[in-house]
Amino acid sequence: MIVKFTPNPYSNFQFQANLDGTNYTVLLTWNIYGQRYYINIYTLNNKRILTLPLIGSPLEYDISMTAGYFTTKLIYRESMQQFEII
């Protein structure tokens, strides 16, 4: 699954992702002090699972932001401004 990242300066960006067979809400928030986005993954009951800084992967290498939490990979391709869920 591919999700195009289209940030809005007035609201947080969010989408739903199926990770290991369960649906989760992925919420991206801007941290004004760190000057970067953070990725937050929540259950559909709003229980936070993890929060990490958004890390971009190059085209030739996958950096999974869900490693250690899920077997499903959540990858952000900064050059293409999109998320890949594989």
Explain briefly what this protein structure is.
With 86 residues, the chain is mainly β. The protein has strands spanning 2-4, 13-19, 22-31, 36-43, 48-53, 74-77, 82-85. The protein has a four-stranded antiparallel sheet, with no helix packed on it. A three-stranded antiparallel sheet has the order 1-7-6, with no helix packed on it.
Characterise the protein shown here.
With 86 residues, this protein is mostly beta strands. Helices cover 0% and strands 49% of the residues. The chain has no helices and seven strands. The radius of gyration is 12 Å and the shape is globular. The mean pLDDT is 96.
Estimated structural class = mainly beta
* Poorly predicted regions: none
Number of helices: 0
Adjacency order of strands in the biggest sheet: 2-3-4-5
Largest pleated sheet:
4 strands, antiparallel
Helix content: under 10%
Task: List the SSEs and their pairings.
Blueprint: E1 2-4, E2 13-19, E3 22-31, E4 36-43, E5 48-53, E6 74-77, E7 82-85
Antiparallel strand pairs: 1-7, 2-3, 3-4, 4-5, 6-7
